C-alpha cells in the first residue's frame, strides 16, 4: 500500500487525487487483461509516469523524493514474482489462441461426452456434500446423547 503525506487542506487532497486517478484501472480489471490491451513498454511508461506524479505529490508534502523512490522500488521488487506469473499466464493464453487455427479451430468443439462429464462432476460434489452433512448430523446426535446422559 502506498501512502501519501498528510495534506492540510481539502483542496490539496482533491488536487492530489485528480493527479493520480488517471492511473487507476477500472474495478475488476486484471493484469492479464491489461497485457492484452497494452504492450509491456506501454505499461512501463505508464508506471514511470505514475511514479513521477506520486513522487511530486510526496515531495510537495515534505517527504524526501529519494526515500519515497526507494519505497517505490521496494514495492516494484516485491511484486516481481506476481508480475512474472501474470506475464506467464498471459503468454500461455496468447499461445493457446495462436494454436487454435493450427489445430482445426476451437478447442471447444462439440464433445458428445461433455454433458456426461459435467453430470459426473456435479454428482461427485453432491455426494461429498451429502457425506459431510451426514457426518455432521451424526456428530450432532452423539453430542446430544452425551448431554442427555449427563
Sequence-ordered SSE layout with sheet pairings:
Elements: H1 10-20, H2 31-37, H3 40-60, H4 65-78, H5 80-102, H6 114-149
Helix pairs in contact: 2-5, 3-4
Structural class: mainly alpha
Would you tell me the overall average pLDDT? 83
Q: Main sheet, how many strands, which sense, barrel?
A: none
Beginning-to-end CA distance, first to last residue? 54 Å
Helix proportion of residues, in percent?
Answer: over 70%
User: Helix and strand string, N-terminal first?
Assistant: HHHHHH
Radius of gyration: 27 Å
Overall body shape: flat
Number of strands: 0
| Oligomeric state of the chains in view | single chain
Low-confidence stretches: none
Give the amount of beta strand, in percent: under 5%
Number of helices: 6
Amino acid at each position: 500500500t502506498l501512502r501519501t503525506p498528510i495534506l492540510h487542506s481539502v483542496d490539496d487532497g482533491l488536487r492530489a487525487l485528480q493527479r493520480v486517478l488517471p492511473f487507476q484501472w477500472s474495478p475488476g480489471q486484471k493484469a492479464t487483461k491489461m497485457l492484452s490491451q497494452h504492450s509491456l513498454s506501454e505499461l512501463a511508461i505508464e508506471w514511470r509516469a505514475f511514479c513521477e506524479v506520486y513522487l511530486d505529490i510526496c515531495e510537495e508534502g515534505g517527504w524526501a523524493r529519494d526515500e519515497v523512490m526507494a519505497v517505490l522500488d521496494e514495492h516494484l521488487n516485491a511484486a516481481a514474482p506476481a508480475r512474472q506469473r501474470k506475464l506467464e499466464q498471459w503468454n500461455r493464453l496468447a499461445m493457446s489462441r495462436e494454436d487454435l487455427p493450427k489445430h482445426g479451430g476451437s478447442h471447444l468443439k462439440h464433445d458428445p461426452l461433455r454433458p456426461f462429464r459435467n453430470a459426473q462432476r456435479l454428482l461427485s460434489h453432491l455426494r461429498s456434500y451429502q457425506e459431510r452433512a451426514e457426518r455432521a448430523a451424526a456428530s450432532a446426535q452423539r453430542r446430544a446423547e452425551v448431554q442427555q446422559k449427563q
